[in-house]
Amino acid sequence: MSRRREIYEGKAKILYEGPEQGTLIQYFKDDATAFNNQKHDVLDGKGVLNNRISEHIMILLDKMGVPNHFIRRLNMREQLIRAVEIIPVEVVVRTIAAGTICKRLGLDEGSTLPRSIVEFYYKSDPLGDPMVSEEHITAFGWASPAEIDEMMSMALRVNDFLTGLFAGIGIQLIDFKLEFGRHYEEETMRVILADEISPDSCRLWDIKTNEKLDKDRFRRDLGGVVEAYQDVAQRLGIMPESSPTKRRGPVLVSDKSKSES
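RESULT FIELD:
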């Protein structure tokens, strides 16, 4: 079998050429990064969990009419996705104060914001993904006013959905990051949700204890990152408590077990 052609490698995922035109294979790595890649580690099983969690959420979003790039999960670490032209703007929705907004505005972490706030960040690792305004986005041609409206509308719908989904399993959604892309099909183009939705891209706190169940455990050296992600997956009902998440080597299968499968 010929080696798949790599299209792009990011901090936590690799994109490969897909089996059909207009598709890609998205591979979830175990790499964990923070502070613009200044902090890095490899956490066995993280990619498996993010793959399953993102798959579950993307399927639910599609059912409620939020178009996204997910087609199907291929295996423990890979998804088949639609190829899109990524819009170089990250959309962040905040409901509870945490992270950079606390530093910028002097807010207490955990305080409730007056309403859900949508922020935009220019996707640029060398610049540290700076916060930008709609004026910057349109002036530099990163997205049109209509595309901005579409991204904001979808982001708020996702916020409403995720807030209810996580509240139902005892988790408070604090904030999250989304990415969008232009999907071209014949003569039409539409903006759809891309990338992933997982504890890597969301802040998630236990409702009763405020225990962090997201990437902040890595950022703040709290430990138990994979265990927290597994907790989220188990609460969502997509991974049994005994399910292994770590990578394992090949397992020899006996003839007897083959005949019984």
